[in-house]
Amino acid sequence: MSPFLDIRVDISLPDKSDTYSKSQAEMVIRDFFYTHAVQNFRITQQGESGDFIFCTGLLQTQSGNYRTTLFFRQKGDKQFLEEIRFQPVE
């Protein structure tokens, strides 16, 4: 996922939210997936809002389901992940 991360990435997890450098974001996301083994991901919505391209989906893990939203921004000819949110689904 590292090649798609922007220089700074906003990450919202169930227990914390912060802005991280690219290398920190990679570790935070890797730790989340390590403790929440992915079983499936299904896109439920995608589109554009202002400068952002977004994708929302249902992430199914062994420890529960999460509404996951990713926000990308176009820079030159590439898209970079600027924000990712994991919200528990009850």
Description:
- This protein is an alpha+beta fold and 90 residues long.
- A hairpin with a 2-residue loop joins strand 5 (64-75) and strand 6 (78-88).
- A 6-stranded mixed β-sheet has the order 2-1-6-5-4-3, with helices on one face.
- It has a single domain, classed as Nuclear Transport Factor 2, Chain: A (Roll).
- It has one helix at residues 22-35, and strands spanning 5-12, 17-21, 38-49, 52-61, 64-75, 78-88.
- The chain is globular.
- 11% of the residues are buried.
Which properties best describe this structure?
alpha+beta, Nuclear Transport Factor 2, Chain: A, 1 helix, 16% helix
Assign the structural class, choosing from mainly alpha, mainly beta, alpha/beta, alpha+beta, or little secondary structure: alpha+beta
Strand order of the largest sheet: 2-1-6-5-4-3
Strand % is over 45%
What CATH first level would be assigned? Alpha Beta
Estimate nothing, just give the exact number of structural domains.
Answer: 1
CATH second-level architecture: Roll
User: Percent of residues in helical segments?
Assistant: 10-25%
Which helices and strands, and how do they pair?
Blueprint: E1 5-12, E2 17-21, H1 22-35, E3 38-49, E4 52-61, E5 64-75, E6 78-88
Parallel strand pairs: 1-6
Antiparallel strand pairs: 1-2, 3-4, 4-5, 5-6
Task: Summarize the model shown.
This protein is an alpha+beta fold and 90 residues long. The chain has one helix at 22-35, and strands spanning 5-12, 17-21, 38-49, 52-61, 64-75, 78-88.
